[in-house]
Structure formats: C-alpha cells, structure tokens
Amino acid sequence: MKVPANFPAWALPVATVALPALTVLLYVIAFPRFDVAEAAYVFAIPMLAWLLVFQPGLKRVALVAFLSGWVAWGFLIAWLRHFTQSADMLAPALIGWMLMLLLAAVLAVFWTGWWVAVAWTIPRIVRAPGSSRVMALMGLAAVWVVLEYARGFLFTGFPWLPLAASQWQRPLVLQISAVTGAWGVSFLLIFFNFALVFYVVRLLQVRRAAWYQRFCPEFYAAIGFLAASIVIGLRAGGDRRGAETLFQAGFVQPNVDPLQKWDPAHAEAVLRDLAELSEFARLLGAEVILWPEAPTPYPVIGNPNMRQWIEELSARLERPILSGAIVTPGEPGDTDAPWFNAAVAVSPSRGLDTRFYAKRHLVPFGEYVPLSGILPFIDKVVPLPGSFSAGEGAQLLTLEVGAQRWRIGTLICFEDIFPRLARESVRAGAELLFVPTNNAWFGEEAGAYQHAAHSVLRAVETRRPVLRSGNAGWSGWIDEFGGIRSVVVGVDGHIYFRGAEVGTIRRNPRLAGHLTPFVRFGDWFPLLCLLWAVAAGWLLYRSEEPVETAPAIGSEPPPRPPPRRRRLGRLR
Length: 572
Prior knowledge:
Distance between the termini: 59 Å
Low-confidence stretches: 565-572
Number of domains: 2
Number of strands: 13
C-alpha cells in the first residue's frame, strides 16, 4: 500500500478510514428507515476509489472490509438486540447484543469475500481492453449475487436485505424481478457502481484525448441495463389498468406485548381487544378480517375453548377470519403433540377449517434453539413447551368471501424473506399471499420496515398481491407490481400502534393464474451468475500477471513502446 506521488503523506491513513466509512454510510442509508434508494447506485464508489488510488494488499483489504461490513450490518440489524429482552433467560439484554453482533459478523464475512474479490480483480483489468473490463465487472456483480443467494442457505439461512430491497419504494426498477428474481436488481445496482467509477477514471486518464477516445463501454453497458429495466417497468405499469376489486380487507393490529399474550392473567384482555378491533374493522366495511401471527393466547387447534371462541366471533361478525395461529393437533391434554406456528381460515358459516398451514422455515432462537447442547444457557424466545415443528409443503388456505373462494399462500413472519417459499406457494396455486407477522419482538425501530421491503420483492417476483398483518405493524397490502397500496398508520403517522384499518384489495385479471419466469424456472439467475463468476475468475487467473502498479486516478497512462520494425531481407 503506497501514497501516490501527488498525494500528501497524511492522505493514506485518512483515506483508509474515511472512504470505507463513507461506503458504510451510503450502504446503510439506502435501506429502511432512511430509504435513500439512490445511495444504492453509488455506495461502493468511495471504497472502490480507495482500492484504485492506494492499491492496498489483499490482507489489508480483508481487514478493512470486515470491519466496515461489521459496522454496516450492526447498524442495519441493531433492532435485533431487542429480540431476547422480554424472554425469561439469564441476562437477556446482554445475550440480545451478543446475538446481534454475532450475526452482524457473519454477514460481514460475505461482504468481506466480495471486496477481496474486487481487490484481486481490479489490478488485472484496469489496463485491459473495454470489452474485457465489462466482462470482468459483470463477473464481480455476479459474485455479489452469488453471495446474496448463499446467505439464503448458509447458517440456517438469513437473506435479509438484499441490495434490491433498497428499491422497495421504487417499483419501476423492480420489475425485472419477475424474470430474474430480486437478484437481477442487485446485479444492476452493483454494476452501476462499477460503471460510474470507471467512467470517472477514464475521463481523468484521457482528459486531453479526442472525444471518441473517452468512450467507456462499462458505463454505457450500465446505462443500457438500467434503460432496459425501466422499459420493462413501464410496460408492467401499463398492466395495472383494468384491475378488479376482490374484497375489502380489515387489518387488525392488537399491539400486544409478546409475552403478555402467553400470560393467562392477560388472556381475557387479549381476546377482548381482538374482538373489539375486529368489530371496528367490520364497521369500517371489512369483508375479511386479517389477524397477525399467533394473536390468541391459546392454540386454536388443540384447545376446544379457543376454537369455539374464534368460531363464535366469526359468526357474530358475519365475516371470515384469516389469521396466524398456534396449532397443536391431537387430543386435548396430549403433551406429546407437536406444536406448529401456523395459519388458519375461519368461515362464519362453516367454522374453523382444520386444514392449516404450518411454518416451513423456523426462526433460530425464536422457535427452536440450534446447537442447544452447546448453548444450554440460551432458551427460545417463545415461552411454549418444547420447540416448534416445521411444516412440510405449501399448504394453501381457502378463504370464502361471499360466493367467491380464494386460494391463499401463507408466509409466516420472516418466511417472506425467502424467495423459494413464495415461489412454492404460487406454484401450488396461490392467488394471493398472506404474511401474518409479529415484529413487536424487535422494538419500534427499522425492523418492521425492513421486513416489509421483502414482501414488495415477493409481490413483483410472483405477480401476486401480498397482504400483511402485523401485531404492531407493518400492516397493509402490496399489488402485483410492488406498489404499496395501503399501510395501516396511526394519527401520528407511525405504524407502531393499536388499531385497525380497511384496504380495498384489487388484482389484474390478466395475471390470474399467470406464472412468471421466476416462478417457472426458479433460481436460474444466481446459478447463471455462479457460472459467469467462475468463468471470469478462471480467465483472469490464466491471463497475464497483474501489473505491479495500477494507474492512479488522475494520472496519465504510460506511453506505449514503439512498434518493432521487421527487418526485411535485401531484394535480389
């Protein structure tokens, strides 16, 4: 690592701290609750400038990248520290901080791997022809996608906040997700960061050259990708016309303390609030009542009194209820019966449908404890006997609204961050997606907003409206194109409150039964990115050795050696 000749000596330590810190700042503010979506197009530029100008070694890059990634993810998931503070365990606040920092460190490993790949690649392409640079930079964008994809499977899977989630309030650019999945948006954003950097470098290096010598192919390739994405978005926007009304949905937010709900002393108050808020939603015109994740203090299947209560409420309201629920099938009092975090549908005329959806992907430390033999001092947060059992398959719920029946695919709580689960539900025949959740475990910070951003991605990928009901928020619905159509907010504009609201659910009839390329073909794009990244890396490895010093920003390119002249033989 060295200081270029035209830089003062103090520039090195200042840049080593300031430029990665600026990248962290831009990365953090790109996501909720800051929601500066445009920052995602430029967040990597400061750290890329550090790599180009000061040319640090890979060990230094790895150290700086890990620390910057740890800080970035620490800020983004700071709300996670609240997860254990209401739990009955030893030093819950301390354990909450420890789990949050540990998870941030794990996520920083993926961030570090990408920056090391960038630092290894740039010296090999900075003087390469334009076409080679484009291919290599696309390979680096592909590496980012592969790492995002891997986060969905490694360490039980936590694909939280892919870069595409930064655009959750910019549905125009999200429409390519119906083809590539949200990974296509992440690819575009990363490649755009590279394009801007190399465009500036090109202008500085050939500022005295003719205009046609300033051509930067990676910049125009990025502009082409962005333009194609916008065109797809504009065409999809035209499909919004002619949407039909399905029903009026009443979103109920009881805002119950997560532990009070399980306390028998508060059971009567919890049920009374649910009934009153549901009645309020009916008076507002709701045709369907939506409840959040596990809102009742007792299992609706496994406790006859609880089942009778919810059936009588549905009959009295003359409205169906779609709700999260705790289910323990078996005879009452059977202590060996499994527990499921589930969702159920209740008809005012038919009562409770015993066919329920059981959560397929459980929350570590929330619904079960991984490595419980190694971590005996940590218990799961939900105070129920034993651990939950995982469900199998995308069991659809049937929602009866008047003479209409709708097939509902359910994603409980953080299941909506997994694209494959939404895709399985739609392939099973889901016409709508329902997300009951309880973000009250995480305080009143950015967690619920970040969580809702994933539902926007799932709506675009599957072209299915997504209905969300949170215990304290975020509640509302999202159309098939990622447009946020209704959000339940209080008089002060915040989502964290107790109340109910009604939203008009619509759907474009032309998309009924339609399966997007993403739903049909699944994870083809990250697999293609994996092949591209491996191929690009292999070609770079087999090519010439990297130059010892890449030209710094603002320096003139080295003069080319004169061409060798062939010595011609004497004519005879």
